[in-house]
């Protein structure tokens, strides 16, 4: 689990329901195909989400890399995603926040060395969030913490050819 997920008392961890997050592009703990990285087309992979609670009002997607030498590196944050069981390749509807590349779009895996783990984290919330588009991960996590009703993640690995 990440530095935020499920460890903060305010997140009501005991109330979380598990989401099942999969991708047709890669398996959990499997290698992420080049197309979804900086060495390829740098597009977001498709995601399938199951076990979304009926009371969910929206989804949040956070993609980050805890193996970065500077600490967890944020590749993408999107909130107020309409409840869906399928996020298509390179297509997500919601509000995109600022990642650590200073961009609003998906920035795929691009590790400087070694194999890194990329966490595709999906949260189901019981409310929409009112946040400005320049929001970063800490502000998003703070605002959504009291609204999380379900959580799931898919972990992909990537190592660049050196």
UniProtKB/TrEMBL annotation:
Cited Pfam families: PBP
InterPro entries: PEBP (IPR008914), PEBP-like_sf (IPR036610), YbhB_YbcL/LppC-like (IPR005247)
UniProt cross-references to CDD domains, sorted A to Z: PEBP_bact_arch (cd00865)
UniProt cross-references to Gene3D superfamilies, sorted A to Z: PEBP-like
NCBIfam families, alphabetized: YbhB/YbcL family Raf kinase inhibitor-like protein
Protein name: YbhB/YbcL family Raf kinase inhibitor-like protein
